[in-house]
Write a structure and sequence with these properties.
Distance between the termini: 26 Å
Largest sheet: 6 strands, parallel
CATH architecture: 3-Layer(aba) Sandwich
CATH superfamily: Decaprenyl diphosphate synthase-like
Bound molecules: 3-methylbut-3-enyl trihydrogen diphosphate, magnesium ion
Number of domains: 1
Oligomer: single chain
Shape: globular
């Protein structure tokens, strides 16, 4: 069955966020070390990036490394950071050919120099691309992001640039690292886990959540289409009742 042709392009989510999970379990299933799973996960990143861009999705945010992930064995953390450098360098050509802009959210200052440098270089070289924005969440934690926003706003108030009464949702959103991006309408998590793990807490207030048992290294375009079709078959009511929704 051709899932892609069933997608209603007029009802495409503008922003899809993905918690890429299950690399370790996938590797274990194949009798391989965890890093093998992370390496194979890169193919899935390429697939969804390409798949999303082909459809016309405007923003794709991928959770690549959480602040909590620093607690993993040192060897795994080092391997993940090295993989980041490699991947950004290798994929730069594909991003350019596909007119995709790279961005990152998270506390990048804590990344190893080499990884940060590769990342910033990728961001710089793709900054004029317009087809889709690929956002990597790296050393990301939603609570950290919210704290940063609070501090930023407090400073503006302190310096009399902003009135406390003027603080509204827009002001707050502008202080987040996702400023200017639409909220994700669809959040996908692979590997059968059904939690959020400190990802985009503010931004997913009204996102549709989609959980799949597929491990991340097995995730292909078809799985992305399945998730989008599932999303399109839901009724997004935003507090209203079914009869009030324009069909
Ligand atoms: C997701 O896969 C990748 C990262 C968190 C970096 P995991 O490494 O969490 O895989 P599992 O959950 O152990 O299977
Ligand atoms: C969440 O995956 C973070 C990323 C996908 C980068 P984890 O596998 O680290 O999440 P928890 O700790 O099991 O919730
Ligand atoms: Mg995991």
């Amino acid at each position: 069955m051709d899932l892609k042709s069933e997608i209603d392009l007029d009802k495409l989510p503008q922003h899809i966020a993905i918690i890429m999970d299950g690399n370790g379990r996938w590797a274990k299933k194949h009798g391989k070390p965890r890093v093998f799973g992370h390496r194979n996960g890169v193919t899935s990143v390429r697939e969804v990036t390409e798949g999303a861009a082909e459809l016309g999705v405007k923003y794709l945010t991928l959770y690549a490394f959480s602040t909590e992930n620093w607690s993993r064995p040192a060897l795994e953390v080092t391997a993940l950071m090295a993989l980041l450098v490699d991947t950004v360098r290798k994929e730069l050509k594909t991003l350019t050919e596909n007119n995709i802009r790279l961005q990152a959210i998270g506390d990048l200052s804590k990344l190893p120099d080499r990884s940060r440098k590769a990342l910033l270089e990728g961001i710089e070289k793709t900054k004029h691309h317009t087809r889709m924005t690929l956002v990597l969440a790296l050393n990301y934690s939603a609570r950290w992001e919210i704290m940063q926003a609070v501090k930023n706003i407090a400073t503006q108030v302190e310096q009399k640039e902003l009135n406390t009464n003027a603080i509204d949702e827009q002001v707050f959103e502008n202080a987040l690292s996702t400023a200017g991006m639409p909220d994700p309408e669809l959040l996908i998590r692979t590997s059968g886990e059904t939690r959020i793990s400190n990802f985009l807490l503010w931004q997913i207030a009204y996102a549709e959540l989609y959980f799949t048992p597929i491990f991340w290294p097995e995730f292909r375009k078809q799985h992305l289409y399945e998730a989008i079709l599932n999303y399109q078959n839901r009724e997004r009511r935003f507090g209203k009742i079914s009869e009030q929704i324009e069909k």
